[in-house]
Specification:
CATH architecture of the largest domain: 2-Layer Sandwich
Helix content: 25-40%
Largest sheet: 7 strands, mixed
CATH superfamily of the largest domain: ATP-grasp fold, B domain
Strand content: 15-25%
Radius of gyration: 21 Å
Strand order of the largest sheet: 14-13-10-11-12-15-16
Amino acid sequence: MNSYKNPSAVVLGLFETGLFTMRALCRRGIITYGYDYKKDNSGFKSKYGIKVVCPHPVEEEDNLVSFLLNENPDETKRVLYPASDEYVDFVSRNRKRLEEKYLFNMPDEPTMGAILSKDSQNELVKNYEENIPCTVILKHDELLSDEIFEFPIFVKPVVQNTWTSQFNGKGFLAKDKAELDNELKLIQSKSIDVILQEVIPGPCTNNIEIGCYFDKTGECIEVFSYMKLRQYPSDFGVGTIVMHTHIDELETRAVRLLKSLNWRGFANVEYKLNPKTGKYMFIEINARVWQQISHPEELGINFPVLQYEDLIGGLSYCKENNMKSGKKENTKWVNIVSDLNGLMKEIKSKKTSIPEVIKSYGNTVSFGLFTFDDPKPFLYEIKYGWVFIRGLMKIIGIETEDQK
């Protein structure tokens, strides 16, 4: 195991993505601090890292800046990893002040601002991508025009941060006008601006995501691609089981797009194959480390440490000391809690079976939260077994009091 005396690292956000980033750094001997305002996030249960509750990045923005500056009294700058959109936005807005004490790598502020807002992201990407789904931007105080593209339509937020505090999942699927009107009434009552987007048909296995790291000179030094096998919620959700794959066309296309945007740091670009046209459609860019970051780590590609080495030693240092040991296609990453939660109804209705689910986990190299060297976050997330017990009770038709 490599060991780094200085500098230390800081992860902002201790939900799963931040936890996986913190684990990846600590396993390489890097002293890592984990900060979050949500005290109930699973990362606080990890044996890794030095965890501290911090101010809210939006509601207490100035206090969080002061907190971060005061938390690093040393002259040596710490390497910073914002692990959720709200922390990415916070770091981007306050980059000039944070640069006094921290090293981080991201696009310039106008580009980052455009990417974090889905409406401006679409407008920006249109300059470089031809295959983009039809979209309509609807402000929270606007009425919907009768002239709209065909149903079904996917409804998602312009700004993700405002959505996650109110709703689960990435958005809503509206199958007809009546359903769309009902959903918009609820969403607009929360003063949330939304995007109405054409739905690309086909299963989630048509979704390919490209994870990248661009060094501080703007060169892409690592790419890792994967295909969704299942997601939760099943229509439009986050991948609960994904498989490493390799599609030259899409990797080249994603890297070209990000280079056009003068990209720096982490990015995750998603495409979906349209079976009607045979073309991959651009879906979105996420400007941070992604949830499945532990998958490439298990294959010897530690993305968080790539940034660390890049920022403390430059490109030549990074190239000499990376951990690449060969990419193994068809290996899988599983979010075991979300995946089983999404499969409960299918198991109960006998659309699938427990043996079939177990078989689908073959060739898995990472089970996300669950690791033998750090089991407490997983045990905390499943309430020390009660989640699975309750799921089994649902399958056999026994309801608990909180399910009635």
